[in-house]
């Protein structure tokens, strides 16, 4: 058998790899390194960057805006991650019992938000939430619940949950579809065996369904946590971090610092902390959410 | 305890009537095997008994109680599935203990029951393992253990051995029979394999297309099949079917002419008219070389030598396929025609609609 072309010496294969590699270095690796370097400098985007050592990072952890953005992000994780996960599992358990044809319709319907660009959704929801003529408040007033018609995106306490719920709505269908595939992987007679042995639906769900869905739970956790730490477009289009920084998150803060205040070095350090957070959380999920029965250590 | 009646039970999925009206009586301690070709409704019938499928009509009565609307767990049945249906994330111990934990038994009781079941099934030193670490046979034993600990009135098995290799299947067959002897419970066992049915059952129920063809002991089905389907399904290798035209009745039975020209008188009861197209059935083991009242010649095409016997596949001179089992020492070679014969009282006779004539030989079981 002829050996694969991939076994050829490096210099022969380099021409094939180079175009991709160049693009990767220019647009991914380069900027990452640049950002890391930048985060150790002060730079206004015009002059020469001045070396600042760990100054940016030290300043960051005394910066009340940054700390607030972290707190907001922690709250948003509930909406990006926890709620879609819970709703997704529950819906998957219900939808999987529905007949095939209807299941397809439900699946498509609930997955729909996920296929739209989130920036577009942000604009749509901003309109839905509009205090004066937004459909939500109009409906509330229409059914006599005018007292509940709030300035959703204008209220300091409501705005974070209001934005968060859009993220929940965006992600739960996606979570559900992943859990549905997970359920299809499981031998249906396992559930029948549990039923014959007298296990009630809740017991079966807690003792069998959930543990067997751990691989999917792990994927969903990883993806949604990353999404929440990276959250920018939904919030940017709906509130721009306002009112009064009530929805400020690290990425919005980074944007403001860099592109509005021209503090590129400081903005870069925010980005790097965000990246480190993502790595840390990923590691934690990998470490602590382990599918049972497979090489448990 | 462990009695079961099906009265006019039917099941339809949409328009398809998968189980036609079925009556069946199962008494305590029987080992009943539902056997039939794939898709005949065996699993559906079993799942209705288990309570996993609702009845379309009719009644299922367990120990005198109509259980149509009773939850599976309250029917006193335990089931073993073809795919084992073990909980992959739980240890063997937890798998076996599962029904007891559901029933909220005290820990001591759970512990002792699981250990007892594990001892019966030789799983004592596997209790801490996960199902993935077990062999197929061990997994099946865990599934059986999970059924045993519940101490059910009735055990239900749905093709529990089909995922095992041949050697293990034979071994598990013996173990299941042994288990039935020692527990004495009623067991209902579904299989498409007539060998499993013949070897384990005290009572066989032959199903086809959602209805019962015949119910009886293994030997009853073997010696007195009520129709061609049962005759062809039970017994290995399959019975030979030869075309026969009726020459009329004599005092000794029905006289026939086979395609090969031989004339036979079959000792059977029942009316037949001259010219009727009948079918004669003869098992491969009942064909003997150059012996018997009815003779014909056969051309062997394939000779399978098993040592103690040889299985010969070929055709008679009229081109009908024939299979014969002869002694292993017989000098039969492929393509060399030889004479076969049989005793008419070993053969079966079927009407054009497939039903069997009653055989006169009362010595048969
Ligand atoms: N849930 C179902 N929906 C529709 N048809 C079914 C269902 N379950 C079984 N059937 C049909 O019922 C018939 C009998 O099935 P089954 O009892 O599984 O046969 P088997 O004898 O092989 O166990 C088959 O034709 C099968 O297609
Ligand atoms: Mg089946």
Features:
heterodimer, A: 297 residues, mainly alpha, MetI-like fold, 2 strands, B: 365 residues, alpha+beta, Rossmann fold, OB fold (Dihydrolipoamide Acetyltransferase, E2P), 2 domains, binds adenosine-5'-diphosphate, binds magnesium ion, membrane (chain A)
Helices and strands in order, then pairings?
The complex is a heterodimer of chains A (297) and B (365).
Chain A: H1 10-38, E1 41-42, E2 50-51, H2 55-60, H3 64-95, H4 100-115, H5 118-128, H6 135-142, H7 159-185, H8 188-196, H9 201-212, H10 214-229, H11 233-238, H12 250-260, H13 264-288
Antiparallel strand pairs in A: 1-2
Helix pairs in contact in A: 3-7, 3-10, 4-7, 7-10, 10-13, 12-13
Chain B: E1 4-13, E2 16-26, E3 31-35, H1 42-50, E4 57-62, E5 65-66, E6 77-80, H2 92-102, H3 107-120, H4 136-148, E7 154-158, H5 166-183, E8 186-191, H6 194-200, E9 203-208, E10 211-216, H7 218-223, H8 228-233, E11 240-250, E12 253-258, E13 263-266, E14 277-282, E15 288-289, E16 294-305, E17 309-316, E18 321-327, E19 338-342, E20 348-350
Parallel strand pairs in B: 3-8, 3-9, 6-7, 7-8
Antiparallel strand pairs in B: 1-2, 1-4, 4-5, 9-10, 11-12, 11-14, 12-13, 14-20, 15-19, 16-17, 16-19, 17-18
Bound molecules: adenosine-5'-diphosphate and magnesium ion.
Magnesium ion binds at residues 42-43, 159 of chain B.
